Amino acid sequence: MLLRTDPFRDFDRIMAQAFGSSTGTSTRPAVMPMDAWREGDTFVLEFDLPGVHADAIDIDVERNVLTVRAERPGRNGDWELLASERTRGAYSRQLVLGENLDLDRLEAAYADGVLRLTVPVAEKARPRKIEVRRADDAQPAAIES
């Protein structure tokens, strides 16, 4: 149902730590932490976006690729930075979702810094019961000679 498409995330984190770029000012957008699970006939995704305003979140779906973008602004004005452990700037996450999800009915809600996306499983992908008829219940076709 879900394919991770950012193999460079850990590499970027290590490089940022090694070269002191923990402010999120690199050219690649920071990746937002995510949880994903299935609840019955619904696929749920939650992204952590603390400090991001709802109007700064952009969600796009093209075919079966879901892209979530957000931005947490930096601080402006006369201030002195004492610690910088929270990334600022652009966040991006792209997921390839299975064709068994109904992306036309995707819903998004944002509360307390968590973006929750719910996607119903497509009707054609839901489990269904198949009735088995007994062979002797079938009417044989008349044979004419």
From TrEMBL:
Concerning Gene3D superfamilies, the annotation shows: 2.60.40.790
CDD domains xrefs: ACD_sHsps-like (cd06464)
Cite the PROSITE patterns for this sequence.
SHSP
The SHSP domain, residue ranges: 25-135
Q: Which family does it belong to?
A: Belongs to the small heat shock protein (HSP20) family.
Q: What high-level taxonomic lineage is stated for the organism?
A: Bacteria, Bacillati, Actinomycetota, Actinomycetes, Propionibacteriales
- Alphabetized InterPro entries for the sequence: A-crystallin/Hsp20_dom, HSP20-like_chaperone, Small_HSP
Specify the species: Nocardioides massiliensis
| Name the record gives this protein | HSP20 family protein
Specify one Pfam family.
Answer: HSP20
